[in-house]
Write a structure and sequence with these properties.
15 helices, 7-stranded mixed beta sheet, 13 strands, Aspartate Aminotransferase, domain 2
Length: 369
């Protein structure tokens, strides 16, 4: 095997073999994942059948309770869940426009599914590289049926509003006659910055989608929560989109393990991310954003080509069993590369001095051009 897939497997093997990991988590084998899933299995639970019963129903009830929602529906992907939520908003309001940020997930990462599959069109809030304001929503030039808010706004740097700013934006959307949907793929870790528990966020809006693998460490899947009317609509359209698969118990079991083991740790990851970001900001030529981070993820820049940084990360991992930061990519500024740092369980073992030492060991492997 050669090419990108071989490179990816080499990086995963190197990361798995590391004793020290700053960003991300050590990959698990399939056997390890199965053991974790088996440990999360409720007693005497039968497999689900086409989305009904079994551990899938257990996960739906668990997440509905955690988010304070009336009902929850499991989907194989978040993209599909969001198409259903946006379609529902359009049908209820009679408006085929969706207001959303230019950096939001449906516009950047879903191949225009909202338009191609659902027949909707986008009304973009200003591209200011930050969360939209209430004034910007109020001043949008045309009507819209749904206001989509991504919490956090990942492609702007995992940015979140303050609680008061969020309430004002939601109120502005409602004043325009729109429903409000939250892309909450990473909502679980957003509650620290917002200063409110997840049910309070859910109660503020009409619908929320949460991921079962981002942050929770599951294998796949998403859950859409809202009222009973939305849930019934979601099950019908999930079937039409081909998402009512025969059995989804593996995704549901992995999600249960994540809810039991990762969800309680997320506030600690967010707190430690502040120390990590503050320390990395002292590296020569480095920049972090936001400072401090709003979640346990943030952006990190270094003044070197991405290839040189990726080679250095791999060499450090293979030769010293230490993982710094990977998946660097070049920016529009020549010689400046960007990576996303994810502070998870392994990073909790590292204090500021250890992080500084790891950064220096990493940079010594970057060739000076």
């Amino acid at each position: 095997m050669s090419g990108p897939q071989a490179d990816r497997l080499r990086r995963l093997a190197a990361l798995r073999g590391c004793d020290v990991v700053l960003s991300g988590a050590r990959p698990s084998t399939v056997g390890e994942r199965l053991d974790a899933m088996r440990a999360a299995l409720p007693e005497d639970t039968l497999p689900d059948m086409y989305g009904e019963g079994g551990v899938v129903e257990h996960v739906e009830h668990r997440i509905a309770e955690l988010l304070g929602a009336d009902a929850a529906v499991l989907f194989p992907t978040g993209t599909m869940a969001q198409q259903v939520a946006l379609r529902h908003g359009a049908e209820l309001t009679g408006r085929d426009a969706v207001a959303l940020h230019p950096l939001s997930h449906p516009l950047l990462h879903e191949r225009d599914a909202y338009a191609v599959l659902t027949g909707l069109r986008a009304v973009r809030t200003p591209d200011a590289g930050r969360f939209p304001t209430a004034e910007e929503v109020a001043d949008l030039a045309e009507p819209f049926g749904t206001l989509l808010l991504e919490l956090p706004l990942r492609d702007a740097g995992f940015l979140l509003p303050t609680w008061d700013e969020l309430v004002a934006v939601v109120d502005a959307g409602r004043a325009r006659g729109a429903r409000v949907h939250v892309d909450g793929a990473r909502l679980w870790e957003s509650t620290v910055h917002l200063g409110r528990p997840a049910p309070t966020v859910t109660a503020l809006v009409d619908s929320v989608y949460v991921s079962l693998y981002k942050s929770l460490g599951g294998v796949s899947g998403a859950v859409l929560v809202g009222d009973g009317e939305l849930a019934a609509y979601a099950r019908a359209w999930r079937h039409r989109y081909g998402g009512t698969v025969f059995q989804q118990w593996p995704a549901a079991l992995a999600a249960l393990h994540g809810l039991d083991h990762e969800l309680p740790r997320l506030p600690g990851y967010v707190a430690h991310a502040r120390l990590v970001a503050e320390t990395l900001a002292t590296v020569p030529g480095a920049r972090v954003f936001p400072a401090p981070p709003h979640t346990h993820q943030f952006r990190f820049w270094l003044p070197y080509p991405a290839d040189a940084l990726n080679d250095a990360a791999l060499a450090l991992a293979e030769e010293e069993k230490a993982w710094f930061v990977g998946q660097w990519r070049d920016t529009d500024v020549p010689g400046l590369a960007l990576a996303e740092v994810t502070v998870a369980d392994p990073a909790l073992e590292l204090d500021a001095d250890q992080i500084t030492d790891l950064a220096h060991r990493f940079l010594r492997r970057v060739p000076i051009s």
